[in-house]
Amino acid sequence: MSNWIQQIERNTNEFVEAFGALSAEQLNWKPNAKTWSIAQNIDHIIVINETYFPVIESIKRGNYKAPFIARINFLVSLMGKTVLNAVGPDRKRKMKTFPIWEPDSSKIPADILERFRKHQSVLMQCIQDSADLVDRGIVISSPANRNIVYSLDKAFDIIVAHEKRHFVQAKELYDLMVSENH
After folding, report:
1. What does each of the 182 residues of the chain score in pLDDT, given as a tens digit?
2. Does an H or E element contain 166, and which?
3. Three-state DSSP class for residue 11
4. What is the rounded CA–CA span in Å between residue 3 and residue 9?
5. Homologous superfamily of the 2-179 domain (CATH)
């Protein structure tokens, strides 16, 4: 638990330190229509992470129904490793996100970093409150696709790695913006 919490705190601090002084215009700057802005990268993280909350709440209430495939251990392990590798920060492969996880396409208000900070606090509390579920080896399906299953601890690994991936993406965009004097 503490490792995920520390990594999320680190991710939060990196975003705030790198982008906290930017204006709304700078946060929303994009070199082209196909590229997400820094603000959209941050919004996307919030959107994805929040889709895990109802799944975890459903497990805690005892009414979560995992798909049959969640009983096949080698598939659970394989899918978890595959997703984790796909969302890693190296960004060698460009990925398309599921439609439910698309960021807001309009201008995002400058308070996105404050919303992100608050969201990260909620996320860390959710992880802390899920220690017993991790200990029990609970398997969940991806909030975006019921047939993609992995353990809850792998889900937390995925969340942390995904945040790092989008920090790298946002940092590259920031560097481009600075080089073009925006």
Report:
1. 789 999 999 999 999 999 999 999 999 999 998 899 999 999 999 999 999 999 999 999 999 999 999 999 999 999 999 999 989 887 566 666 666 667 767 789 989 999 999 999 999 999 999 999 999 999 999 999 999 999 999 999 999 999 999 999 999 999 999 998 76
2. helix 152-179
3. helix
4. 10
5. dinb family like domain (1.20.120.450)
